[in-house]
Amino acid sequence: MTHQATTHPLDDALALQARDNGVFVGHTTQAYWNMVGPFGGITAASMLQAVMQHPQLLGEPISLTVNFAGAVMEGDFTIRANPVRTNRSTQHWMLTLEQPGPDGQMMVATTATVVTAVRRETWSVSDCPMPKVPDASHFERAAPDFPAQWLNAYDMRPVTGNFPKAWDGGGDASLSQLWVRDMPERSLDFVSLAAASDLFFPRIWLRRAKRVPIGTVSITTYFHATGAQLAQTGSSYLFAQAQAQELRNGFFDQTAQLWNAEGLMLATSNQIVYYKE
């Protein structure tokens, strides 16, 4: 009996066709669809994917900043990846994601910058150890709490800070902690880690226990692990936590950390999010 190979939904969503001069064409997929567009993490991962597939790539990612200038619509999109400067150990990239506007002219929906680098063995220390919590087997997978298709792409097991039991405006904390991995299972790499860095629910929903309209404006993810360390992590659960620091005048921030099950810090991220009363 023969078995036909299947593509993981994440790899399908991140499939890019290379054109000339650092131009890549992709297509949105329903597996990572949010309420009115693609899950922001998959857009961020697509931008990074263009860099990872670029023939001029130097080293591995250490920083990814994605600015959501406008909505990404269903259908084809074009990513332009330009290595604006390459040094001995670091490389700096500028990217845009474009789609046709109402008049047929290409419009920028997302911009990004990426820094890649050649890492070298040096003195290292972690000043932010992983919290001591029971492993993922002690927690149940959370059922999606609202109709967004991308939630089915992850096995999320809340430890603390899940959705409020009542949306009554009585929230008092924004901290969330959870175990998470791709669903179906997939070996970890930089693009999947970039997507996972944006999987947290809006901090204001927890802090207020009230669902208000939100939209991420900008997210920066810092990669602390090497590609080899991500490969060693494999498809195991990651421990992830996120918390707001300030919610004021229509915008709030979020700081997040992701470790593997052995306590190795893999990535940290910060984002600024718009909210509306």
TrEMBL record:
Gene3D superfamilies (UniProt xref): Acyl-CoA thioesterase, double hotdog domain
Pfam families hit by this protein: 4HBT_3 (PF13622), 4HBT_3C (PF20789)
Classification via SUPFAM superfamilies: Thioesterase/thiol ester dehydrase-isomerase
InterPro entries membership: ACOT8-like_C (IPR049450), Acyl-CoA_hotdog (IPR042171), HotDog_dom_sf (IPR029069), Sec_Metab_Biosynth-Assoc (IPR052389), TesB_ACOT8-like_N (IPR049449)
Domain Acyl-CoA thioesterase-like N-terminal HotDog: 30-115
Acyl-CoA thioesterase-like C-terminal domain ranges (all copies): 141-274
Name of this chain's protein: Thioesterase family protein
